[in-house]
Amino acid sequence: MRLGVYLLAMSALAQVKYEDILKSPNENWLTYAGSYSGQRHSPLTQINAANARNLTAKWVYHVPDAKKLEATPIVYDGILYVTNSNQLHALDARTGRKIWIYRDEQAEGQRVNRGAAILGDKVYLVTSDCHLVALNRKTGAILWHKKYADTKEGYFATMAPFIVKDKVVVGMGGGDSGARGFLAAMSASTGEELWRLWTIPGKGEPGSETWSKEFSLKWGGAGTWLSGTYDPALNLLYWTTGNPWPDFYGGDREGANLYSDSLIAVDADTGKLKWYFQFTPHDTHDWDAQSWPVLIDTVYDGKPRKLVLHPNRNGFLYLLDRVTGEFLRATAFVDKLDWATGIDAKGKPMVVPGKDPTPGGTRACPAVRGAANWMSPAYNPVTGLFYLPTLEQCDIYFSSTKEPKPMIGFAGTGGENIPAEPGKFLLRAIDPRTGKRVWEYGLPGPATAWAGAVSTAGNVVFFGDDNGQLVASDARTGKHLWHFGTSQNITASPITYAVDGKQYVAICSASDVYAFGLFEPMVE
Amino acid sequence: MLTLILFLAQVGAPDFSKSSLMKDAANIDEGRKLFASTCSGCHGPSGEGGRGPNLMTGRAVRRSTDETLFNSVKNGLPGTDMPPTNLPNEKVWQLVSFMRALNAPAYEVLVNGDEAAGREIFMGKGNCRQCHAIGGQGGSLGPDLTNIGGSRPLNQIREAVLQPDKRLAEGYQPAVLHLKSGKTLTGVLRDYTNYSMSLVDNAGNVYLLRTAEVTDRRLSMKSPMPSYKETLTATEQRDLIKFLSRLSARREQ
Q1: What is the ipTM of this complex?
Q2: At what angle do helices B89-103 and B25-38 cross, to 10 degrees?
Q3: A294-298: which pairs have CB atoms within 8 A and are 24 or more residues apart?
Q4: d(Cα A222, Cα A241) in Å, to the nearest integer?
Q5: What is the rounded distance in angstroms from the CA atom of residue A257 to the CA atom of residue A282?
């Protein structure tokens, strides 16, 4: 009988509507960040701080060929969708059994892939060579392919496509080789391009005066390689941009280099830039702004405000008004930070001289990998805490004045680890209104993890550690509740979902997808 | 110095414009003969595999560079039963050409026939759309064909059209399931274990089931696809295969 109800439910719920995405996450996890706000906070409470120690593995799905899964799965109506490079796997979310696999073997390159998007009867992914692909979500049948950027111009793609109303928003990688950044929206039904916003202005456009050479307006970087967030009431997309190019030598691009290393607020209907905020003007340390903007509504300075929170690779946690872009505050969330003494009242870094890369090498902190990066933070609106995977590390930065050549991997050289000063990961719980660190959970290991976090109303934070383990800790205190070893480096972020009234937590390890749930004793 | 290196490289593995070599019918044919006499014992008469891996569908072959394939044939694969050969380099390249032709997606090789006529057969006389979809149009009981030319070698497409029962495509086993709820489902099994199964019906609905909830199941090992060996003329078969070979999801780009 229950099955009958389930089958009926399946046919009734066959279409994912925009309204469903507005309600995510619930039993479903419909976007890369779970919700448009990017909070990665689930209302599910079946697994909670009192019983998380009873978690057990429910299934493991091995992704053939996978070497480094970086995907966040999405879940709809009992089906889990996970991507690998040029592949999408649809699984029964209760059993981990495969329903279908899509493989694009004609794609050029084997880049990592961070996830799928879903709307209507379609699931979407981008291929390494910038094709947006729409598949029938139930059968995996190909509906269309749309090429939106050319590898011949240095572009590639790794991101989870982003659904907003009837559009799919896509970004690009390649900024480290000079490719000019853009954000594009395509029709979710046909793939037709509806708007494109360049993150490097054209000649004569506002912002072009922040680049000393015209060459940079064609080859300037500012990639858009991570998914963004969205405020439906304001109809604004919030997206972050990557570093200016060449990454480590700024002599050929004097100026602030807009709109690199920035948060841009974009009208979702027209693609017009509403406002921007640049975190690291004239960056020479490869500090892309790719940790996504988290939208929070809270009382700040005695007034309820619509805010956007952003932990930057440069080591500062920023709080802005998301209606106007007004800078409110920034606080260091790492101790290893020496390139600036702080952020001034206007939001500009107070830069310490002598920290730019040099041919002989300059020590600077944070490291190239950043104090934060694309691995997901989470925000629990009940505890009011922001759970941030954090890296304490410094690097030696080298530069070269060699003439920049695009599309050959030239970055003006780079950063190197300091063997005597190994990096250290921590999960930090921070009050975003004050920047105060409330608790932290040290993650000893080789500093090779790129693992994110998810928060639940059951007062649990799940996160990957630096030894391939998924960890559950108490959201209020950080106290350890449970862990599970995968024996593989984790370079992905966990999610939670429910099917048939049972809650699961899922995460990708390097080559497998794991799902956990509460132990169920045998009942006679 | 550079000249010398180039010269040595040529001695090691003569590069007589491999890209054209790969499509040169005479070299492929020479390779075919060599394959029959030296490789088929392990890899099967048509490269379908046996003691050695399947070379027709194996993705390892498709993903390998020409040089890797050349070196595998020339030097063998230590740690496996694949031996080295003392065939001259020219012959080894002919074998590589044949392997490429065997394994390359049909879209990338020359195929004879009338594509437009093949399309008409697909839509009309062949009634293929009843079970197969292209670009979201068609049934779901057979594999999606939107990218069949871009993903399958010509031999495999030909075999599927003329001898569909030889191999049942993975995830397309016909089944009729009776459920405890009284409902009957007819479709193909995407997955089947002792504990759970998933079925797709021809309308493209997917059903995720626990075995305990299925009272009776009838599974067939026979492909529901008819053979077109007798029902289409040789010309029609050729045209249909030509049409299928041109189906590539990336074609319009």
Answers
A1: 0.87
A2: 100
A3: A294/A37, A294/A38, A294/A39, A294/A229, A294/A377, A294/A379, A294/A386, A295/A36, A295/A37, A295/A38, A295/A39, A295/A229, A295/A231, A295/A238, A295/A322, A296/A37, A296/A39, A296/A379, A296/A381, A296/A432, A298/A381, A298/A384, A298/A432, A298/A433
A4: 5
A5: 6
The average pLDDT across A273-300 equals 97
Task: List residues of B whose CB lies inside 8 A of any A CB.
Answer: 59, 62-63, 105, 133, 135-136, 140, 144, 146-147, 150-151, 171, 179-183, 190-191, 193, 195-196, 198, 200, 204-210, 213, 248-250, 252-253
What tens digit of pLDDT does each residue of A228-245 get? 999 999 999 999 999 999
Q: Is the pLDDT of residue B131 over 90?
A: yes
- Which structure tokens are listed for A201? 């202005």
DSSP string computed for A285-308: S-----SPPEEEEEEETTEEEEEE
3-state secondary structure of A58: strand
Give whole-number Cα distances, B33 to A178, A224, B28, B52, B84, in Å. 49, 52, 9, 18, 18
Residues of chain B with pLDDT > 90, as a percent, come to 57
Rounded to an integer, what distance in angstroms lies between the CA atom of residue A141 and that of residue A406?
Answer: 37
pTM for this model (two decimals): 0.91
- Paired tokens of A476: 């209020």
Q: How far apart (Å, rounded) are the C-alpha atoms in residues B181 and B6?
A: 73
Residues A155-176: what's their mean pLDDT? 97
d(CA A164, CA B179): 39
Distance CA A500, CA A40 (A): 22
Q: How far is CA B4 from the centre of its chain?
A: 42
N- to C-terminal Cα separation, chain B: 43
Size of interface A-B (CB pairs under 8 A): 103
Closest residue, chain A, to B133 (C-alpha): A141
The pLDDT, as a whole number, for residue B21 is 60
CB-based contact A154:A407 (threshold 8 Å) = yes
Q: Stretch A36-57: mean pLDDT, rounded? A: 98
pLDDT of B79 reads 87
Find residue A119's DSSP bridge partners. A122
So what's the pLDDT on residue B18? 52
Tokens coding A310: 């952003």
**Would you state the pLDDT for residue A424?**
97
